[in-house]
Each structure stands twice: as C-alpha cells, then as structure tokens.
Design a protein that fits this description.
The chain is α/β, with parallel strands linked by helices and 425 residues long. It has 13 helices and 17 strands. 36% of the residues lie in helices and 23% in strands. Bound molecules: guanine (GUN) and fe (iii) ion (FE).
C-alpha cells in the first residue's frame, strides 16, 4: 500500500468502445500503485481499508489528452485571428516565438502556461516549444513540476523562418537537438523529449536526414504538422518535387510512423494515398477543430478516419486554437463535423458525443500507452467534475450531466485531477 493506492467514489464514466460509454453510478474506481484496478459497484474485499475519497454526486472521468499545442503561443491566444496559416505564422507567430531567446521572458510566459494547464481537465499533452534550447528546458522543468505527463519538443526550423527565428544550418539545428536530448532524456519523472520538426516548409532535406539519424539513435517519438492548409500543401509540392503527396516528405526520411511513433497535427486535406500511408504506419492524427476554424483551414474528415480505424485524438493547437481545455475541442469536433456533413459531404455522418469522448480520452491517450480509460492495468488518470453550479430545474441522467459538463463547464468545475495515480489538483 502506498500513496498511489486509493479509491474514488462517484459516478464513473469512461468509454466502453470508441462509440459507446460505460456509466457506473455511485461506484468505486480503484488506483493501485498508479494503475487502475477497475470499476466496482462495491469496494472489493481486497481493497477494504485503502483510503477512499467519496466525491458524493460528482462525475469521475479519465483524464483528457491534448495531442497538439504550442506553449510559446499561449500568451497571445485569441489575438490576430483573422489570418490564414502562412500569413499568421509570418506576421504573428514567428515574431512572438523569437522572444523566447530571452529566458526572463520565457520564464514569465511559461510559468503562466504551466499554471493554467494544471487547471484544465487535461492530464497529458504533447507540446511544441520553440527552437531555443534553454527556454525549452525551462518549459520542461516547469511542466515536470505540474505532475501532468507531457512530451515537449524543441522545435527544428532551418529554412523559411525570419532572421530572428531560424537556425543557422541543418548541422547547427541537429547539434542543438542532440544537446537538448542528452540534457533531458532521463532528467524528469513526468516529461520526455519528442522530436519536433516544425513542418516541411521549415526543415531542409539535410535537416530531416540528420533528425532521422537522431530518431534512430535515441528511439524518440516525433510530432509535426500535416496537410493543414491549401497554400501550405502547394508549397510543399514545390519544395519536394520528388514526392507525390505531403506525407511522403516525412516518410522518405523514416519520420512518419512505423518505428518512429508519430503525431501529425491537422490532416484536414489529406489525399487518399496519405490516409492509407498513415494507416499503414500507425500515425496518430491530432484533430484540432478550433484551430482549423480560426485559421479557416477547413474541416478534417474525422468520420472517415474513425471508420478507417486510424489512430486519432484531439488537439487544442493553441494559439491556432484559443482554448486549452480539451472539453472545448470535443464540442468543436462535434460541431464542425455537423457542418461538414450538412455542407460538404452527407455521406460522412456527424460525430457523436461518445466518439468525441473517446478521442479526447483513449484515442489520444493511447500515444502514451495504456492511458485514457478505467480498464484494469491502465495508468490512473482521472478528473473529478462537480456540476452543482450548472443549475437547472430538470433531473438529468448521468449521461446528460456529462454532456452538459463537456459543453458548459470551465476550470471551476474541476474538483480534482490525478495523473498516473499522482494528485495534480
Ligand atoms: N504549421 C507550422 N507551424 C505551425 C504552428 O505554429 N501552428 C499551426 N497551426 N500550424 C503550423
Ligand atoms: Fe500546431
């Protein structure tokens, strides 16, 4: 018995399948040494005497995973939202990210980011930093202290940046990357490095070759962007005339799934060959509906990805997206899927609440292993939700209460949060 062995009592909700929920009212979910031992109507004999927190009538759900966000963009989210991707990067994002050369500024900005992220229903996240090694390591220090489990990436970019935000050469970028990996690979309990070539337009072939060697040597996962915006896709065609679609620009260097666990953000306009290659290589898609709406990128065909059995989770993509809570990404995913169905392709049915819940929990969580469910053996990530301030004269079922919390709640409704059995909030 230790501090990471306890029970929570309440209304327990988790995915039964990718399209159905399991709801256990007034039940117990047990954490045994950081792992989930299951959900029970009574406290089993074996666990009598372990600490039990009775949440009364609260809902208890698995923690949510944000598969894609940019920490240095948190400070200016919800400004400059009237541009498309490439103009937004050049005029707003790159100048802002250049500021992270200044560690004092980075400390101020990343402290706010880490504190705010702690208050969300998210327990895991895959985070882009900037190209600067000292500021990235500072971000990792701060994230480690939150108790959330995260992967953080020093960004690689050796072309098409600005004079203030671009690495000197492919070799310099690779050299900084190795230093950063050596510094951080075994340093933290809760944070791991993830290779982060920003996107193809930012990375020369030479840099991709070097990152491929680094990936193999250290056996690291990777995150990047894919087929987000029409202008971007056309640009990649010009930059990589030897490839027949965008995904190949990563795949030709072995940086597209397979033995390189990979998250590709967006996949709004992926062609059929790209979709099939993602499926074959087991690439995770980070669906970021709020960002895709803000930057007018489009609406990803998520129904198709689910039907094809691709790995898919949700991302806030702050600051393309304005809200860090993955509850917001769930409702946005449902809403844009309805617009796509109505206006673009009536053969792809809108997403259901159950499907959005699955993507937010186990869909994205799976990138971290057995995460995002209360099945036996899963890492114990849980969020306790109190809806007593969402007043109504009606009597709601637990399923209705969950839906209302997803659509209406904010950080104030979160009464507790655990990651891998550790109390974060
Ligand atoms: N593509 C390359 N960089 C970025 C970024 O910072 N945000 C988004 N949404 N797309 C990108
Ligand atoms: Fe992004």
């Amino acid at each position: 018995m230790n501090q990471r062995t306890f029970a929570l009592k309440g209304n327990i909700c988790c995915s039964e399948t990718s399209s159905s929920l399991s709801i256990s009212e007034n039940s117990y979910v047990i954490c045994e040494d950081g792992l989930c031992a299951g959900v029970f109507p009574f406290l089993p004999e074996k666990y009598r005497g372990i600490p039990c927190m009775d949440t009364k009538d609260c809902l208890i759900i698995p923690g949510l995973t944000d598969l894609h966000l940019h920490a240095p963009q948190y400070g200016y989210r919800a400004t400059g939202m009237d541009l498309e991707l490439l103009d937004w990067l050049n005029t707003i994002t790159f100048p802002q990210e250049a500021r992270y050369r200044d560690l004092e500024f980075a400390e101020k900005a990343y402290s706010i980011f880490a504190e705010d992220l702690k208050k969300t229903p998210n327990t895991r996240a895959c985070i882009f930093a900037t190209l600067h090694v000292p500021a990235t390591e500072l971000l990792m220090d701060l994230m480690d202290k939150t108790g959330m489990k995260t992967m953080v990436g020093k960004v690689n970019m050796d072309r098409n940046g600005t004079p203030q935000l671009q690495e000197e050469s492919a070799a310099a970028s690779a050299c900084d990357t190795v230093k950063w990996i050596e510094d951080t690979l075994d340093k933290y309990e809760n944070v791991k490095p993830i290779l982060t070539p920003r996107f193809t337009p930012s990375c020369s072939d030479k840099l991709m070759e070097l990152l491929s060697e680094i990936q193999k040597k250290y056996n690291l996962p990777l995150q990047s962007h894919l087929s987000e915006n029409y202008g971007e896709i056309e640009w990649v065609k010009e930059l990589c005339p030897n490839t027949s679609f965008y995904g190949e620009a990563y795949d030709q260097f072995g940086l597209f799934g397979g033995s390189c666990p990979t998250i590709m953000a967006h996949c709004v306009h992926s062609c059929e060959e790209e979709i099939q290659l993602m499926k074959k290589r087991g690439v995770y898609i980070a669906h970021c509906p709020q960002s895709n709406t803000n930057l007018a990128s489009g609406i990803a065909p998520v129904r198709k990805y689910l039907d094809e059995g691709l790995h898919i989770g949700l991302g806030s993509d702050v600051a393309g997206g304005t809200n860090a809570s993955i509850f917001r990404a769930m409702t946005d995913a449902i809403q844009v899927s309805k617009l796509r169905w109505r206006l673009v392709d009536s053969s792809l049915k809108p997403l259901t609440l159950e499907e959005a819940f699955y993507m937010a929990t186990e869909g994205g969580g799976a990138f971290f292993g057995k995460v995002g469910n209360f099945k036996k053996g899963y890492e114990f990530d849980a969020v306790i939700l109190d809806d007593c301030n969402l007043s109504s004269p009606l009597d709601f079922s637990v399923k209705d209460r969950l839906e209302r919390l997803i659509y209406l709640s904010d950080d104030r409704n979160i009464k507790g949060k655990f990651t891998a059995g550790n109390k974060v909030l």
